[in-house]
Amino acid sequence: MSSKKKNFARFGMAAKGAVYCIIGILTALAAFGQGGEQTGGKGALKYLAEQSYGQFLLIVLAVGLLGYVFWRFYQSFANPNGFEDNPKGYGKRVAFFISGLLYGGLAFYSFKLAFGGGGSGDSKSMTGSLMSGSNGDTIAIIIGIGMAIKAVYDLYRAYSGKFREEVEETGMDHKEQKLLINAGKFGHTARGVVIALMAFLTLRSGLSSGNDIGTQTDAFSFIQNEFGSFALGIVAIGLVGYGVYMFIKAKYPAISVASLRNNNSGGHGKKTIDLK
């Protein structure tokens, strides 16, 4: 991969981190009664649109998200992780492709907001059209199962340390590596919890003929209603942690074929510093 393409991918990782930080900060402020609002990705973009230089910020973020789309598609088709040609390997590459499509949609929405489109009524337009058919319940159940798998995988990454395989730790000092571990574990845990609740709400809707997909905002409301504002605040701060992890990943990406395969084959363990 050329240096320009690598930098474009890194810019994409940073843009994703920025989106998660905005989501987490706004939701944490709302949870602790300091303003803010419970929001998801589109809500974060709408918040930017209301700020000074909002159009400029939205365009920069949209270009960054396209960089993340490029990276996900590169992972899908170039297979730098070296996934084998079996159902497991193909499944991971398909997941990367779907992730690219989702962030492509967010990039499109950011451009749309920047140039005067994307009103409040647009937030669930794609979901609404998807659910409006006769097979809406089935689609909701399938999506819910997919979300549940993603949630389990995020929690697995958090406590197995798998998230570190995507960061090139050579050259990182002690403080940076400690921040990587804490932000990665806390952030992936929080994201796993949110996605798990989205899966639960989606499956519940599909099984009861509700034809609806649970959003991040729905998950936040569920946490606050069932467990209280403090729990919501902790989860929201965790999402900020995930954003910080993405910033570290953008700075030290294991983005080349060689580095990714070295990490996946066990080279990662040789670089670990004892943090106890």
UniProtKB/TrEMBL annotation:
Keyword Transmembrane helix: yes
Start and end residues of each DUF1206 domain: 11-77, 95-160, 186-252
Organism domain of life: Bacteria
Pfam families found in the cross-reference section: DUF1206 (PF06724)
Keyword Signal: no
InterPro entries per UniProt: DUF1206 (IPR009597)
Keywords associated with the record: Membrane, Transmembrane, Transmembrane helix
Transmembrane segments: 12-33, 53-74, 94-118, 138-156, 188-207, 227-248
Protein name as catalogued: DUF1206 domain-containing protein
